[in-house]
Amino acid sequence: MDGIALERHVMAPTSRVFAVVTDHERMPEWFPAREVVRRRPGSPHPDGVGAVRVVRASGLAVEEAVTAFEPGERLSWTLVAGAPLRRARGDVRLLASGGGTRVRWSVEFETSVPGTSWLARRVLARTLARALDGLAKCCEAR
């Protein structure tokens, strides 16, 4: 598996950042997606472990299943369908830092077409950078 990870400091408490990151249906307010729909609720929180969400962006409808939901600390998911990847899993980790939150967003993936990992890394880097910028603006404005 290949991967990428980006970090960003957000001037908001971890509780606020976690609340924004885990509100799947409001993701388009900060994530570069047209729409996010919860297809199946998780437990014990609707956006928690077992939740399935569909993220629609750039002509794709990517389905993801939440695999970890640790309030104030971590949200993880795995790709179910829709991306031009064989396998992928994402992880957002939060750590209180300097009066705010250090956000580390990582994605591990395996491409469907050999030799295209560089392209997937490039697209993911751009998407994650935009997402982290949007997350910071959204959390800091609340």
CATH architecture: 2-Layer Sandwich
Report strand order across the widest sheet. 1-7-6-5-4-3-2
Our Rg estimate from Cα atoms comes to: 14 Å
Low-confidence stretches: none
Tell me the CATH topology. Alpha-D-Glucose-1,6-Bisphosphate, Chain A, domain 4
What value does the average pLDDT take? 94
The structural domain count equals 1
CATH class: Alpha Beta
Shape: globular
Secondary-structure class: alpha+beta
So how many helices? 2
Q: N-to-C SSE series?
A: EHEEEEEEH
Looking at CATH, the homologous superfamily is START domain
Q: What is the makeup of the main sheet?
A: 7 strands, antiparallel
Q: What is the β-strand count?
A: 7
Residues in helix, %: 10-25%
Described by its quaternary structure, the protein is: single chain
Please indicate the percent range of residues in DSSP E strands (runs of 2 or more).
Answer: over 45%
Distance between the termini: 37 Å
